[in-house]
Amino acid sequence: MKPELRPLLKRLPLTREERGGMILHTGSVEGTDLVATMTGIGTALATKVTEQLLDTVDVDHVIVVGIAGGVGPDAAIGDLVLPEVVILGETGSEHRPVTLGGHEPHGKIVTGDELLIAPEVVEQLERDGVVALDMETASVAVVCERRGVPWSVFRSISDSSLDDLVDDEIAGMATPEGSANAAAVLRYVFRRPWRIPRLMKLGRDMQTAANAAARAAVQACKEWAEPTTSP
Predict the structure, then answer these.
(1) Per the domain annotation, does 97 fall within a domain?
(2) What is the CATH number of the domain that holds 148?
(3) pTM across the whole model
(4) Among 92-106, 125-139, 173-187, 205-219, where is mean pLDDT lowest?
(5) Which of 134, 149, 186, 225 has a 20 to 30 Å separation from 34 between CA atoms?
């Protein structure tokens, strides 16, 4: 989404361009070429955009950067999530990212289009070692692995399963491409004006998480780009 892309653009010297029908942001750090784009929301779009990106640009390594929903009481807003395993919920297939930046991977992310908020479902996820939920990472992983391209992921917690802040109606306020659905937001606010503070908190927490994920990903890219010298 745009709120996830924006922190990257603030931290990296990237220039907007159109190539192969895609909006890309390109530049370099210490001689390493970088390209950023948005997948949009959901597994189908993530698959489509990743395929299109790899068809358009010669990519050595894909990095997924963005927010995720936390699972369980230990999930705090802004916590960095670098999973050991990412699971595609629809098929149960497991995918292991390359960990960048000297971080220690931990836990699992489940990717799916369904909003998993039922208490019994969340409890089972927690027992299974799942620390976060998202809607794109495993789909990106499937494409990358099929193409033989290494991939990594930097996610950060923007909301928790225990907060009771996100429901299907709030999730529907974003278009599949990740922009705000203005009509849906207005309807929600008109019918439930007392929930405006909820929306404001979600916005602040999303920004906190997006900044944390971008900061870690950019640092990893810079470390990757730094020339090494032999002892």
Answers:
(1) yes
(2) 3.40.50.1580
(3) 0.86
(4) 173-187
(5) 134
